[in-house]
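Researcher: Please translate sequence to structure tokens.
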Amino acid sequence: MDVKALLEERIEDKFIRYCLVDTTSVVGAGKTPSSEGQWKLAGILADELNALGVEGVTVTDKCFVIGRIPSNVEGSPPAIGFMAHMDTVEGVPGSDIRPIIHRKWDGSPIKLLDGVELGLHTSPELRYAIGMDLVTSDGRTLLGTDDKAGIAQIMHAVCLLLKDKGKKHGDVWIAFTPDEEGAGGIEHFPVDIFGAKRAYTIDGGIIGDFQDETFTAVNGHMKVFGLSNHPGTARGRMTNAVHLMAEIISLIPAGERPETTSDREGFIHPTDITGDVEMASCRFIIRDFEMDKVLRREKSFVEAARSVVSMHKGARLEWHSEVSYKNMKEVLDKEPRISELARKAIIEEGLKLDERPIRGGTDGSRLSYMGILTPNLFTGGSDSHSRNEWACVQWMESGSNVLVRLMGLWAEEK
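Model: Translation complete:
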């Protein structure tokens, strides 16, 4: 697209164009990016940034798109960055996405294909979007709000700057990142070429959403080994690893599961399971906001699992775990103005600040410990990782305005 077309394009049209590119990440692919579609979207975004005159646009060998908008103010205000990830989560269909715009939604249920339904009964936060324009998929796939709404907001904010040269800003760095959805892409972030040490991911939820605190995450892999025997003569001889793993999973308290917890409550979550009589394998994610709580929960669960296994003939258990990411608040608190200016920009836009910790992680969870302090701003949608994912056009527009306001606030800092 040429510059004029990019500048005149509505934010919903940008968003929908990006959603049409299948960028499903593949956990365990052993490469970054984990899917070819991310290269395609990276090329589109790099071409658009170049057309808009963004300087130093680069697509790295790991598919990070990096660019810079030079300062237009005197002095040396701190450089800031804005980031969004290009991939979408696996486990929900992400190809052949067919977005639908529901103009001036009246609050009644939206019925999509395959029995998918969206409304106030499924997403109570939609009550704030009645009368506005919603974007959904047709029900066969996810939409891609997470995080193509973030990409669209950044690109729209760049266009707003170009259309109004009077808006003040320091150096603004832009990054579009691969494989945020569990595939470890951020480990390869090119810290050496990204010129901002303060940044924001646009990867949150509904309008006014701001977060500078995330879960601390432990990912674990458990294997239980049993003894096989012919089922006709199995009494006293067989130890079925499938039964053992089922018994171990049943040890997770009903009140410590994702589907029964909220706010600051942690959980243990079995994400996938395979196996047979001789060996059953299950992956678990363990989450809480403090490291000591996560480690205590892990220790208690694994000890209980070992106790179960010890009571069965010939059975044994293997457990391997690692810290996937840590709560970013510990390091963000070292420079309070990063969060303070974000709150101010949201409020100056006339929005109600919605500040709750992220029950998950973002690229900022890792980046903040890599030397780039990175809290999180709203995308303008919700129900991520599902077929009834949605975005609100007016909320995305407000998100772009908040980014421009943030640029102006940072331009006044020294």
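Researcher: Any highlights?
Model: The domain at 216-325 is CATH 3.30.70.360 (Alpha-Beta Plaits).
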